Amino acid sequence: METFKKLPDTSFVVLEFQSTFGGTAYMQEVIDDNGIAKHVRYNQHIDTASWDSKESKWTLEAHDLKTGEKKIFSGNFLWMCQGYYRHTKAYTPEWPGMSDYKGLLIHPQHWPTDLDYAGKEVIVIGSGATAATTWIHEIVRRKIAHDQPAFTKICIESPEQVKKDLIAGVAAHLPEGFHVEKNFTPSYRPWQQRVAFIPDGDLFKSFADGRSGKELKGDIIASATGFNLVMFGDIVFTVDGEVVDWHKTITYRSVFTRYDE
Ligand SMILES: Cc1cc2nc3c(=O)[nH]c(=O)nc-3n(C[C@H](O)[C@H](O)[C@H](O)COP(=O)(O)OP(=O)(O)OC[C@H]3O[C@@H](n4cnc5c(N)ncnc54)[C@H](O)[C@@H]3O)c2cc1C
């Protein structure tokens, strides 16, 4: 926004195919404080992006997901903020017998906001970022965000000590004789891959009460199995009429350049 304040004659638009903003709980505040809402157009799916070298201009073809109307946008500068995963289709593996399951199978990426899971048996598949934080409370989320810089610093300064402490913390939540070395000892240092925070160690309670590794019955299965990676929001890019083949490009300092074999 600061950039645009310095360029009063410049107009900009933010195009988003979802019907509202996503992201974190603080996003509404950021939008309000900076007066961004009037620049955002929701339900706009970008299908193609074409660069014209002679005109130094991008032309985007979009369609309105509500009305189906085709729209054209053009500009000199295209800032891609499409993220790295397919928002419309989460990654769910095929499990044998899946079609026989009569309960609810939900991927957190498409979590129904009105889901009532009170008193239900819920099984979470996965052990990574989504699974660990599926039911994390907002207050806990804020505390983690607040403490994170200090924790990251100590991970960089004393990785081996932090690794030892984390594993000891996990072991303390697990039953006697649980194979911590085999199941909970990563080959990498803390923050070389992300550290998942498990408030109150609730994930470990299911190991401690012996439910792990057996047949589990559940009314709801939350498949926290990850996402599908996608390049540039599935948008077809062309440069002077030629479709860009990303396999034939390299990126250097955030700039894509074509190379010819
Ligand atoms: C399971 C999971 C857990 C995570 N947990 C955390 C966490 O706890 N803390 C943290 O800091 N980060 C977390 N992240 C990472 C964080 O979500 C991303 O780094 C962040 O969302 C990236 O922001 P972005 O704006 O680049 O992309 P996104 O948030 O992905 O936004 C991209 C937007 O572009 C839109 N879009 C895409 N293609 C098109 C198109 N063709 N036309 C129109 N619109 C389009 C999408 O609808 C989307 O709204 C997590 C990620 C995942 C997957």
Automatic annotation (TrEMBL):
Superkingdom of this protein's organism: Eukaryota
Record organism: Gonapodya prolifera (strain JEL478) (Monoblepharis prolifera)
Listed GO MF terms: flavin adenine dinucleotide binding; N,N-dimethylaniline monooxygenase activity; NADP binding
Keyword terms of this UniProt record: FAD, Flavoprotein, Monooxygenase, Oxidoreductase
Flavoprotein as UniProt keyword: yes
Protein name: FAD/NAD(P)-binding domain-containing protein
UniProt key word Cell inner membrane: no
Cofactor(s) the record lists: FAD
